[in-house]
Amino acid sequence: MSQAKPAPVAPVRRDLPASGLAGFRHWRDDLAAGVQVALLWAPFSLGVAIASGAPAVAGLISAIVAGLLYPLLGGSHVTVSGPAAALAPVLLWGMLLLGSGDLARGYPLVLVAIVFTGAVQILLSWLRAGQYASMLPSTVIEAMLAAIGVMIIVRQLPALIGAPSVPTKGVVDALRHLPDQAAQMNWPVAFIGLVSLGLMFALRNPRTQWLRKIPSAIIVALLGIALAWAAGVDATYLVRMPQNILDGLHAPAFREFLASPQLWLSMALVVFVFTMIDGVESVASVKAVDKIDPWRRKSDPNKTLRAMGVCNLTSGMLGGLTVIPNAVPSRANIDAGARTLWSNFWSGLLLVIFAVALPSLMARIPLAAIAGLLIYIGWRLCEPALFRRMFSIGLDRFVVFVGTLAAILLTDLLVGMLIGVAIELLLLLYLLMPSVRYVLTGRLDWASANRLLWENFSGMFRSPVIRERLETENGRQRMIFTMRSLVGFNLLQLQKRIARLPHDAALTLRFTESARIIDHTAVEYLQELEEEFAAEGRAFAIEGVENFQRFSAHPLASCMQEAKLARQEADLSERGQVIAAIAARHGLAFRAETMATINRHGFIYLQRGAQREETNAAFGAWQGGTLRVYDYSHTSPPDYHLAHRHTLLSFEYPPGERGCGPCALTPGHYLERYLVQLPEIAAAELPAGYRAYGDPTALVRLLTPEVRAAIAPLGAVYVELQPGAILFFRPFVALESDEAIEALIAAFASVVTAVRSARPA
After folding, report:
1. For 83-136, how does the pLDDT look when each residue is reduced to its tens digit (9 = 90+)?
2. With respect to CATH, is domain 457-555 assigned 3.30.750?
3. Does the predicted TM-score (pTM) go above 0.85?
4. What is the DSSP string of 482-519?
5. Residue 3 above 60 pLDDT?
6. Domain with CATH 3.30.750 in the chain
7. Is the dihedral of CA 732, 737, 741, 747 positive or negative?
8. Residues 161-214 pLDDT 10s
9. Beta strands of 522-602 (E only): which ranges?
10. Cα separation of 381 and 375, whole Å?
11. Contact at 8 Å (CB) between 38 and 347?
12. Stretch (H or E) spanning 451
């Protein structure tokens, strides 16, 4: 969150790839991406089905259905849908419950549940229920995914070592069987599994980036096939595939379900769990993919819910698994240059070809190689870096995260998530309730304490807007909302209020003494809202947050307004002292606080990845405008828990002055998949090893002899010009030293002077 800011300069709008049938004109880019996605989906979908306890071909069927239908239904832009590893434990639980422990009996009954789930999702989309998924605390969602990761790892360990599988409903029971299963290890199969798992981790290493053009799942599958052939592995340890995909189609067991009233309650429970988990995971996935979409397009949650409903209904009728938007192949889709949802269509079409032409090849993939792929995915969902991140956000988040995770593992997904929501509610209630000391010392009577407790509890579900006032400012409308406490449970009501504002109106959220707390989910939403307003060129301000105490230094930490909390100034870190000294030498202000980076000027570089944060910022008047020097970090695919750090320099033009651009000068292919927004400039006068994108006139203004001479000693630099500002840094260097920052400032002065002093040709 940030305090009041001047109105940002509206970034130049770029042509967005059209959705629907109009997007078919991007077929070349989408076809190339679809090939990549199909190569990933082929082994991945088989693995999800096997982990679910269903026939392997069921995963392929659901991936084909999603690929062919999703582009026709819309809802998002570059998201890939299909079977998800995160739902495999849920499907297995459903089969065991409906089949009374018999997977063969439970599979056709789960198909009935999938069809019903699709129908319910279509109904919920008509009721616009997709928006309610945002009320679930984000920490509970993170814990759910981490728990699913643990489930995947535990359940796939036997297959990894070639031991017999024992279907169990819970993780605890599965752990009890592991010692006996380890004693029955098949050493050749275990070797294949461990090599496959090790290869998945090795391909994550930046030094193997040249292999990233081939999906790691395909590399592992092909290596597994070769090793299994060399070791003469028995067919028992290989994927089972029908020679004709039509033989893999299974009809849902509607007749058995209707004839067995004792199943109806269990079926209702399974459909409820499928619907809730599908909905939550779908919304979380499309939001994550929207953040890494090079065009920053926004998905429609209700339209996505309807699309998933149609896909699930169709998939279930044909014998396929549940279908949801999936973050893993979506990242691969974006990396491959996809423009629209039609990449889904091409991947689905290619999967049909694979299923028809290559069933015998897929039947040679070892189950151990598939287990290695799935265990790696499970690890990515629950790796230690996630726990460290949750702890860094605040102890309150860590308590909810670990509590929810433990509850899910000890019970099941539904009960565990409900316990997680209860933990969140109780924690908020504890933080908001008056101290017992006040009652015991007579400073507050029991009746008043109970009234305050009820007001705080009910306030978590009432609209956080106490009062609203519309003002006119410089000819533009500004809405001012006076706020009470803002938490995840009352966010939806704020979202509805904001959605009703005029499309060009400015917004101020004013937190007064009536606001006691802003929780982590609300802080995350406010930062996304600020980013959205900045992208639209609308003024946005948050007032009163200076009176709140953050629970940690993390920009996403919860914060609370408490007069008795002492504010202590932390000693500057060694890095902070370096930037503070630079600020003093150049007459700039300094701020050590970690804050979310708001991309006010539409910099393409700042659209990359997620968890964009800045710290140790020096800022102030310079060269007639405003200079900012700060340490910046972000995460990017495929490692979303590992931060990339750089020291950035930016220059903001003074009010009334408009710069040039958009234009980017970049070393080699750096940031290429994001710069697709701008046309590449074919200019012979570019410095050796550089490429340029955007406005050729702006490039001429930038590349003066003085600028060339200034940047040459620095090595590779990235320069981006936008109408309101300039961005400058070295992309292959992490945090810069004191001397290096001084050299960068001197070179940046030449860049700013050249761009501002030149005149358009």
Report:
1. 988 789 999 999 999 999 899 999 999 999 999 999 999 999 888 877 777 678
2. yes
3. no
4. EE--B-GGGHHHHHHHHHTS-TT-EEEEEE-TT--EE-
5. no
6. 457-555
7. negative
8. 999 888 787 888 899 999 999 999 999 999 999 999 999 998 876 565 556 667
9. 540-543, 549-550, 559-560, 589-591, 595-596
10. 10
11. yes
12. helix 446-459
Q: Which two tokens stand for residue 143?
A: 């814990």
| 294 token code pair | 């090079």
Cis amide linkage into residue 662, ω under 30° from 0: yes
| Contact status, residue 644 vs residue 609, Cβ threshold 8 Å | yes
Q: Output DSSP code: residue 249.
A: -
* Mean pLDDT along residues 691-701: 91
Show the tokens assigned to 729.
């840094």
CA-CA distance, 181 to 164, in Å (whole number)?
A: 7
Classified as helix, coil or strand, 9 is coil
Q: Count Cβ atoms within 10 A of the Cβ of residue 328 and give its class: 0-12 exposed, 13-18 middle, 19 or more buried.
A: buried
Strand 506-511 relative to strand 540-543, pairing: parallel
Residues 6+ apart with CB under 8 A from 354: 38, 42, 60, 362
Q: From 152, 200, 570, 157, select the one nearest 373 (Cα to Cα).
A: 200
Reading the block at residue 275, the tokens are 């619907």
Residues 6+ apart with CB under 8 A from 361: 225
Q: What is the pLDDT of residues 318-354, one digit of tens each?
A: 999 999 998 778 878 887 888 999 999 999 999 999 9
Per the rule left: phi > 0, alpha: psi between -120 and 50, beta: everything else, 636 is beta
Reading the block at residue 446, the tokens are: 């029991």
Reading the block at residue 208, the tokens are: 């193997």
Hey, is 611 helix, strand or coil?
Answer: strand
Cα gap 313→382, rounded to integer Å: 31
pLDDT at position 11: 44
Task: Identify the helix (H) or strand (E) that includes residue 582.
Answer: helix 574-585
Joined together, the tokens standing for residue 49 give 């089905």
Which amino acid is it at 299?
A: S
> Structure tokens of 760?
């358009």
**Class of residue 131 by CB neighbours under 10 A (exposed 0-12, middle 13-18, buried 19+):** middle
Integer Cα distance of 625 and 726 in angstroms: 11
